[in-house]
Amino acid sequence: MEVDTDNRAAVEGRLEEHLTLPLLAATQAAAIAAQPWFGRGDGKAADGAAVDAMRRVLNAAPGEGVVVIGEGEKDDAPMLYNGETLGAGGEPRYEIAVDPLEGTRYLAKGLPGAVAVIAVAERDAMWSPGPGFYMDKLVVGAAAKGVVDIRLEPEENLRRIADALGKDLGEIHVFVLDKDRHEDFVSRIRDYGAAVVEHPDGDVGGALEALMPGSGVDVLMGVGGTPEGVIAASAARILGGDMQGRLAPQSDAERATIEEAGFDMDQVFTLPDLIRGEIMFVATGVSGGHFLKKPWRNAGHYWTESLVLKPGGRIARVVESAGLVST
Predict the structure, then answer these.
(1) 16, 71, 135, 155 - which has most CB atoms within 10 Å?
(2) pTM (2 d.p.)
(3) Residue 310 and residue 16 in contact, taking contact as beta carbons nearer than 8 Å
């Protein structure tokens, strides 16, 4: 993956300058649009509302963005599709990785954990997983950067993480998606002495927790979606953490398609493989939780809580009025 150096000169510093407010507005719009579907059991309707709202905002944003990672394809959900062009045109030109409703099931069931997320980078800077829908991931924060290797047994990585963090193994908390494919994996982690934090969905949120000090999660491990992997890599790069991944097809058909596309099933993807250059990441809470609040109403407006990650590791937690409440 080579970055377009002609575009880099035009983009350097301009993603933040031109896109901070539009990206924040896009995740806010998606979060608010999903609210009527909170707890109503219709995840696809909520997803569709969030997608439509985010698309409207991004189509008015400065420059030209191309969707490289559009969540939804693997589960036939509404989506911003790969290759879709958004924006008002001109400079800056950038790539988009997006999930307007990450944790759809949480929103549908009225549970905390759903967020609207988007990441952008300069052109030709994001890895495209092609037909690969799933990948094995390992995400740690800055304090454990450089000590893990996804090719090692999980027990060895957990020992290294504990040593890097100055913790006993019993104090290590591992985020793992609560899926049948992880049953034996979770047993191994617990047998080794670490604690497992299981969630049915939301491994972008899990990656953020692993990356943010004091969250109660020390590492994300296991197989999740490739779109979520690239989005998580964006946050890891900005926050100074570490991430590694390998394609992990969940069916013979997916494996065959990946191999036909020329992907190396044994390749370990590191952060520079997954995303390069100038990056921005924004997440807005949709269904609430300890990390980002659910949108709330006050004085005739919706208010939202968002996390904005900017180049250079700068973090902003934004709470602001985001739109009039319809009556």
Answers:
(1) 71
(2) 0.89
(3) yes
Q: Are residues 209 and 248 in the same domain?
A: yes
Could you list the residue range(s) of the whole structural domain that residue 108 is in? 5-126+279-324
Distance between CA atoms of residues 213 and 72, nearest Å: 30
Give the domain CATH number at 97: 3.30.540.10
What is the full DSSP assignment across 37-97?
Answer: GTTSS-HHHHHHHHHHHHHHHHHTSSEEEEEEEETTGGGT-----TT-EEEEESSPEEEEE
Distance CA 281, CA 160 (A): 28
User: What is the rounded distance in angstroms from the CA atom of residue 287 to the CA atom of residue 305?
Assistant: 11
Convert the pLDDT of each residue in 258-280 to its tens digit.
999 999 999 999 999 999 999 99
| pLDDT tens per residue, range 58-98 | 999 999 999 998 854 544 556 788 889 999 999 999 999 99
- Give residue 326's pLDDT: 55
Distance CA 43, CA 105 (A): 6
Whole-number Å distance between alpha carbons of 204 and 225: 9
> Does 246 have pLDDT greater than 60?
yes
Residues 267 and 141 grouped into a single domain: yes
Name the domain count of the chain.
2
Say how far apart CA 113 and CA 107 lie, in whole Å. Answer: 8
Q: Per this entry, what is the length of the chain?
A: 327
Residues 267, 290: Cα–Cα separation, whole Å: 35
In terms of C-beta density within 10 A (0-12 exposed, 13-18 middle, 19 or more buried), how is residue 285 classed? buried
**Cα–Cα distance between 22 and 61 in angstroms, integer?**
6
Residue ranges with strand state E in 103-234: 115-122, 134-140, 173-177, 195-199, 219-225
Angle value at C-alpha 291, between 224 and 295, nearest 5 degrees:
105
Those residues with Cβ within 8 angstroms of residue 175's Cβ, 6 or more apart along the chain or in another chain? 197, 199, 203, 206, 207, 209, 210, 217, 219, 220, 221
Q: Is pLDDT of 135 > 90?
A: yes
